[in-house]
Amino acid sequence: xxxxxxxxxxxxxxxxxxxxxxxxxxxxxxxxxxxxxxxxxxxxxxxxxxxxxxxxxxxxxxxxxxxxxxxxxxxxxxxxxxxxxxxxxxxxxxxxxxxxxxxxxxxxxxxxxxxxxxxxxxxxxxxxxxxxxxxxxxxxxxxxxxxxxxxxxxxxxxxxxxxxxxxxxxxxxxxxxxxxxxxxxxxxxxxxxxxxxxxxxxxxxxxxxxxxxxxxxxxxxxxxxxxxxxxxxxxxxxxxxxxxxxxxxxxxxxxxxxxxxxxxxxxxxxxxxxxxxxxxxxxxxxxxxxxxxxxxxxxxxxxxxxxxxxxxxxxxxxxxxxxxxxxxxxxxxxxxxxxxxxxxxxxxxxxxxxxxxx
Length: 358
Hints:
The chain has 358 residues and is mostly helical.
């Protein structure tokens, strides 16, 4: 699915625009950045994040308090479902911390990121930071973006043609399996976090590992001390599966089904970010549930911008993209899922054809 089209720039400016340069001087992104800065949208929102961090911490404490009060009952599955939502909100807070939207200092951001990520939900801040930084630098680039590397799923027809193993097994029907597979994403985050501890690139390995171990020990101890073994396993399954579905539902609309790049095909920064990203329309509730990532275009252009400013930045960015002739794609939430799933089904065609031929 390709993004919606805007009016093309004039012929005279086309050679400059292809390199991201504005006809009057300076890059297209520099001019947009100046407008955003002049509007005060890069300023920190200390009060907002003080409330938000306190709220998610309180929600986590309240969920565990209800868990302890209920004891050994199947009603705990309702607590597991609500805790999946809380874990997702904590992951979004860790995301903002990693982008230094909350604190300017990297050390302070990393400290709080590890507290919320490693200790709070059992997800390695260092592992995720490394992976997400590479994604932001080259979104939807098949060789450079780890989020579109062929693993279980394939993201382009070229990947489908060269697929093997599990990707080849399920790639032909991956669109139908996408949401069921998200039930495993919570478990995958924990496993990937532990595996990353053995990577030479992992910083603060002892701190990361210690906090992950503390989270795991406390989590499993609580489940098996308060619940019978069967209920404890059921709680773990419901909690982690719904956590994975919630996280996947947040991130799936952002880039899936948008244009991909490969090799030396790499446009300037502004186009690289805008053309590969999709915004999701909605009100304040959508902003809350998606953590501001529904403004994916603005977030990719200005990753350190506090999330409450993204709604205002959208007005400037959308108008500027129209001004310079860069397609700006925005759709509703359900439509975004349909576009992503349609893309997954289309790129899996070579695998289906290969099966029919064999």
